[in-house]
Amino acid sequence: MRNYEQIYIDGAWVASDGEGAIDVVNAGTEKVMGSIPNGSASDVARAVAAAKAAFESWSQTPVEERQKYLVRLNEALQARSAEIAEVIAGEVGMPITWSTMIQAGLPAGNMQTFATLLDTFEFEEEIGNSLVVKEPVGVVGAITPWNYPLHQ
After folding, report:
1. 36, 60, 84 — which closes off a domain?
2. C-alpha 82: how far from chain center
3. φ and ψ at 34, to 5 degrees?
């Protein structure tokens, strides 16, 4: 059973401002497989503030350096693929074979694909008499699907 008592904000594991914990239930067995802190609106505000603070320098990071981060992320995902597949299989009720291929395998492969695409991606493109510039615009918050947690 994995019980987490902290949340990850601004590069560190920190206590949540929320009270209590939320049980994580295995979709296949209906048994509690772990717990996570019950986050709060102030936790979200701290995370957004940290992301906004990091945005300025990250948005100026050279493409080659970003590419290296994607490669490292791919390597880290591959190194933990068995653990990732097991946890997500329990969370979403997917057979471990499928979870290994889909839930753990595809996100790692996507990171490698994104890194490779950066070699040829056009950040500036002339279309007619217009110049289209693709650049970072800021922090994004999203509510993502429950059935592909690592793909987001």
Report:
1. 60
2. 17
3. 170, -175
Count CB neighbours of 73 within 10 A.
Answer: 17
pTM of the model: 0.84
Give yes or no for a contact between 88 and 149, defined as CB atoms under 8 angstroms apart: yes
CA atoms within 13 A on the CB side of 138: 4
Residue 101 amino acid letter: M
For 16-75, write each residue's pLDDT tens digit.
999 999 999 999 999 999 999 999 999 999 999 999 999 999 999 999 999 999 999 999
Rounded to an integer, what distance in angstroms lies between the CA atom of residue 66 and that of residue 47?
21
3-class secondary structure, 80: coil
Overall number of domains in the chain: 2
Q: Are residues 142 and 96 in the same domain?
A: yes
Please write the tens of the pLDDT for every residue from 119-132: 999 999 999 999 99
